[in-house]
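Researcher: Next entry in the queue.
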Amino acid sequence: MNAAEPRSASTQRPAPGEVTVVDPAMVKRAVSAAALGNAMEWFDFGVYSYIAVTLGHVFFPSGNPTAQLLSTFGAFAAAFLVRPIGGMVFGPLGDRIGRQKVLAITMIMMAVGTFAIGLIPSYATIGVGAPILLLVARLVQGFSTGGEYGGASTFIAEYAPDKKRGFLGSWLEFGTLAGYVGGAGLVTLMTALLSTEDLNSWGWRIPFLIAGPMGIIGLYLRMRLEETPAFAQLEKEAHAKEKERRAAEKRIGIREMVFGQWRAMLLCVGLVLVFNVTDYMLLSYMPSYLTSELKYDETHGLLVVLGVMVVMMVVQPFAGKLSDRFGRRPVIAAGCLGFLVLSIPALLLIRQGSLVAIALGMAALGLLLVCFTSSMPSALPALFPTKVRYGSLSIGFNISVSLFGGTTPLVVTALIGATGNKMMPAYYMMAAAVIGGIAVLLMSESAGKPLPGSPPAVETEQEARELAGATTGH
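Model: Structure for this entry, 474 residues:
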């Protein structure tokens, strides 16, 4: 058995004592490639989120600011409706032509969609055509993103040694946070340097137009990572088993991916629900909440969120290590319990309005969110066996994100508009925490264990010999 053989390349039951020894250098390259793509895609999403108030003025009729914001987040949510379709298209495509190629395609589509938004004329210029074109661009973004997370998280999980899957998987969401920080930082800079008139007139276009050349640079870097001799040799050695795996997976339909894994699918939907509702609430909705609902200064609000994300990035890898040491379930359960207990106090702090109070409230929510961002990339792939992992995870993840995560800004804005209760964000996060908590209680612990359908994976030959000896009783 080759030391660098990918466990995803095999669909056969491993022989007793069979152990995969991973190549640390290859694992680092694989993690870097996946995280880089995630960062690029979420830079694009981040830009849209943080400049949502301005986009409402540009693309929708003037009048009610809440209606403008609601329309903007409606276009934001529409992209999530096509994510399951993207997952169903890109998942099988990834099995046929390779995961890395598909991840490159999705990144290109995201960059093109974002760049196109920067070229769309305003509502004042072309009328109803402006929001229609915005919606089309958002649908392109959403379709491309449908093939990203499932493939990237599965890719890392299948290459990682069992004892470090949480730590290595945490870098995927580190890439997400880095993309958000890049998007938020750029929007904050533009907001600080430009007047409101200039921002509404032409300044808002700059972050979107930057996505074009950034996409080209990101694609170049990822292709460089893929074209290393180690990756080329890996593909050559795995070719025979890849043919067997693909032939087997072609016989697996959507019905088996969903209904054949119904329990794991329900757990996936519940875990992704709490993960994404809290994620989009904090990172996408709160900047607009501070500005539109609490009338807080836009620049200061963005700076606070930017600071929270930087803190999350610092904590992220350490939390990933905690999930390896203590388990995914305790870490995710701590996040659910924290959101259930602390959502109301945190939002009350934020509503106080002072910079310190807002920073403390946002930081509390951010640290709780790290419980999910650090653990989910390793916990979710472990729900499914190898033969259906990519497809089942992509379908379950994107359905949950489409129904609950991406709609969070739209639903919460509508609830506040209907009830006048500005505590709705806290209540919404608490409800999500209850559902996530139930999923945690029903899921099995996967930390330190092989992925279902895969042999054990270790870092050294010595560990392999020890594990093989323990397995055979010697």
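Model: The longest strand covers residues 20-21.
Researcher: Noted, moving on.
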